[in-house]
Amino acid sequence: MNALTFEETNLLCIYNPGSRLGAIEALTEMRGYLEQDENELLALTDSTIVKLRAMTDTEFSTLDLYLDFDK
């Protein structure tokens, strides 16, 4: 599995309904609202989706996608 970058992990913290397929769906939907000039966010979203498609549900379940505001 390609390791997620810090930015990709943060994006998943925002768009994480709890499952790998759900995250792919949420990111794909969000991507549809982006403008063409939002190049960085488009690229980040695309790279995250590619990595989600390449990983298994088991690998996804081991990701720490919950922010700890107490730290």
Secondary structure: elements and pairs:
Layout: H1 6-14, H2 20-31, H3 39-54, H4 57-61
Helix pairs in contact: 1-3, 2-3
Short description:
This is Transposon-transfer assisting family protein. By secondary structure, the chain is mostly helical. 59% of the residues lie in helices and 0% in strands.
**Beta-strand residue percentage:** under 5%
CATH level 3 topology: Arc Repressor Mutant, subunit A
Based on DSSP secondary structure assignment, what is the total number of beta strands?
0
Provide the CATH top-level class: Mainly Alpha
Q: What is the annotated CATH architecture?
A: Orthogonal Bundle
Order of helices and strands: HHHH
Radius of gyration: 12 Å
Helical stretch count?
Answer: 4
Helix content: 55-70%
Largest sheet: none
Detailed description of the structure:
This protein has four helices and no strands. It has 71 residues and is mainly alpha-helical. The chain has a single domain, classed as Sporulation protein-like (Arc Repressor Mutant, subunit A, Orthogonal Bundle), CATH 1.10.10.1850. The relative contact order is 0.22.
Salient structural properties:
single chain, 71 residues, mainly alpha, Arc Repressor Mutant, subunit A, 4 helices
